[in-house]
Amino acid sequence: MMRDDTLRRRLSSPTPYRAIIAVLLSTGLCASFLFTLVVPIQSELPALLNADREDTAWVVTATLLASAVVTPIAGRLGDMYGKRRIILWLLAVTLLGSIIVALSSQIAVVIVGRTLQGAMSGVIPLGISVMRDVLPTERVDAAVAMMSATLGVGGAVGLPVSALITEHADWHVLFWMTAGLCAIALVLVLRIIPVDVLRVAGRFDYLGTIGLSIALLGVLLAVSRGDQWGWLSPLTLGCGIGGVLVGILWAWNQLRAREPLLDLRVAARRPVLLTNLASIAMGFALFASNVVYPQLLELPVESGAGFGLSLLMASLIVMPSGVLMMLLSPVAGRVARAVGPKVLLIVGSLALVAAYGFTIALHTTVWQILVANLLIGVGIGFGYAAMPMLIMRSVPQNETGASNGLNALFRSLGTSAAAAVMGAVLAASSAQSPAGLPTSEGFMLTFVLGIIAAAVAFAIAMLIPSAPAEEAHPSLPEE
Fold it and tell me: Which residues, including other chains, have CB under 8 Å from residue 8's CB and lie 6 or more apart?
């Protein structure tokens, strides 16, 4: 009887929308924070794990590969079995991975734990889909903008926190902290987020899942490890070409399947396709700044290019861009409702062009790098907020999770490419330097590549139709 009374009270007193938004934002912040965890200790991993540097690189690569594979699959599972349920499973897997790493210093065990932590990346697109399902239409744009902002905020704010912890405590504390955050998020989602009522009937496409996983692993291994293996080595070419060929076969299978993992006909709609292509360029421009600016700030002054700041001080210079993303997210929501998300994406890409243009012209003092980072915050805050809005205005309700997951995958392709390309450029410039450090010319080339990526995002954004693709039941209808 008491259980029935409790259930009636919960049904008659629906969860406040602000509580739902706050819980989903907290999961997004946890997800983005996970990807900056090992930045402060990355150079020390060979000593900490008693392993070769090439082996310790897998501590980062494993999380990247797992996140790329999990994100689109988790989106489809969310559409079919409930987004809240899949978020809970992703949090549980990430919690397990965090505990595994926190308890071990063995390289193989740490890689396994970091692979499990990659599951957390699926939380953000699923959280956006939950917002679409449970919030009133007038609240969705602002909420989606804030959720998208967590992609930058968690990393920007988490970096100085990670640096502070590693300076004063054992590195395992980082992973105990993430385990605690995941446990809290899991309880909050279980208690606050309502059970899904919008689900898609059908059978899960296991063959499509295997094919997509193999294709992504092949391509991303080639992109992320090509610098170490050699871009023309048989291993790199085999992974890259093999991944592309499997991807072609996978696409052919998806077009013929009755219940595909991803409906490629929906993904091929012009607004969706162009938005996903813009996501690659935006992801490249964002992660290029994450790779280049901290290195520039931390590099010794004697190198002729750096400022000689500590990791903590460099993190504090980068942090304001993430804070600005969150502060601008309500503005992004209002702008999207007033003039449409396409304009928001155009403004965001122009801000990125301005950021890299400013850096090309002025990069000799710390305040100039700070200004460039603030412009990056504006660009990513607006651009990342616009992309899921554009997607959901052009796909049916039963494709919300899968389509957002696919968009997140395209962003991951951009960030992976940026990490590989920027790393290769700076490594090449280091090889030409007597001190063995990146040169000012190498950094200048990275800035040029960044502005090219931002300009590509702008050009693609201009081609996106102002009116969404015709859809009888769009995930996010126009007002």
Answer: none
Question: Can you give the residue ranges of every domain in the chain?
Answer: 2-204+261-463, 205-260
Region label for 468, one of left (φ > 0), alpha (ψ between -120 and 50) or beta (otherwise): beta
Closest residue by Cα to residue 402 from 293, 211, 272, 303: 272
Say what angle helices 58-81 and 206-229 make with each other, to 10 degrees: 160
Q: Please, which residues have CB within 8 angstroms of residue 229's CB and are 6 or more apart in sequence?
A: 235, 236
Nearest-angstrom CA–CA distance, 443 and 369: 13
Question: Are 410 and 282 within 8 A, CB to CB?
Answer: no
CATH class of residue range 2-204+261-463: mainly alpha
Residue 4 has pLDDT above 60, yes or no: no
Q: If you average pLDDT over residues 280-301, what whole number do you get?
A: 84
> Of 261, 312, 350, 295, which Cα lies nearest the Cα of 80?
261
3-state secondary structure at position 474:
strand
Is the distance from CB of 199 to CB of 84 less than 8 angstroms? Answer: no
pTM for the model: 0.81
Q: What is the DSSP letter of 365?
A: S
CA-nearest of 220, 226, 284, 215 to 252 is 215
Burial 137-163 (b: 16+ CB within 10 A, else e): eebbbbbbbbbbbbbbbbbbbbbbbbb
Around Cβ 199, how many Cβ atoms within 10 Å? 14
Reading phi first (left if > 0) and then psi (alpha if -120 to 50, else beta), residue 340 is in left
- Give the model confidence (pLDDT) of 94-150 as tens digits: 999 999 999 988 988 999 999 999 888 888 888 888 888 888 877 887 888 888 878
Listed ranges 65-69, 224-228, 345-349; the one with the highest mean pLDDT: 345-349
